[in-house]
Amino acid sequence: MRRALTAVVFAALLVMAVAACGSSSSSTETPASTPATTPAAADTGAPGGGDTSVGVAVFKSNCAGCHGTDGSGGVGPDLQGEDSLDKVIGQVTNGGVDMPPFEGQLSTAEIQSVAEYVTNGFN
């Protein structure tokens, strides 16, 4: 009986981990489960007006679980070398094949900041 309960609990945790990243395939990595928000971004001189520190914080708390802490990929694709700001904003806002949308969970300023962080080479 205990073995069956352990198997059920493990299966439920695996399903939650996969669902958190919007993936339809199994994975042993545990992605970030709940998007965290940060204070609204202020214009601090980043190229597009976003706040670099907000971009870093948003990426670490919402993206790194699937894309890796340096954006090199994992459950999600490698983001290093991505240079289309509009593409990244659209992807973060609307989601994609295996990625959940963050519209309504992140502010427009947070999406702008994290997109600039990614397209500026994680700098």
Can you walk me through this structure?
The protein has 123 residues and is mainly α. It has a domain at 35-119: Orthogonal Bundle (Cytochrome Bc1 Complex, Chain D, domain 2). It contains 4 helices and no strands. Helix 2 crosses helix 4 (108-119) and helix 3 (85-94) packs across helix 4. The longest helix is centred in the first third of the chain and has 19 residues, at 2-20. The chain starts with a helix and ends with a helix.
Structural key phrases:
Cytochrome Bc1 Complex, Chain D, domain 2; mainly alpha; single chain
What low-confidence regions span 5 or more consecutive residues with pLDDT below 50? 7-20, 22-47
CATH 2nd-level architecture of the domain at 35-119 = Orthogonal Bundle
Structural class estimated from helices and strands: mainly alpha
Order of helices and strands: HHHH
Name of the CATH superfamily of the domain at 35-119: Cytochrome c-like domain
Query: Major sheet, described briefly?
Result: none
CATH class of the domain at 35-119: Mainly Alpha
Mean pLDDT rating: 75
Helix content: 40-55%
Distance between the termini: 52 Å
Mass-distribution shape: globular
Oligomer: single chain
The CATH topology annotation of the domain at 35-119 reads as: Cytochrome Bc1 Complex, Chain D, domain 2
User: How many β strands by DSSP?
Assistant: 0
Instruction: Give the strand content.
Output: under 5%
| CA gyration radius, whole angstroms | 16 Å
What's the number of helices? Answer: 4
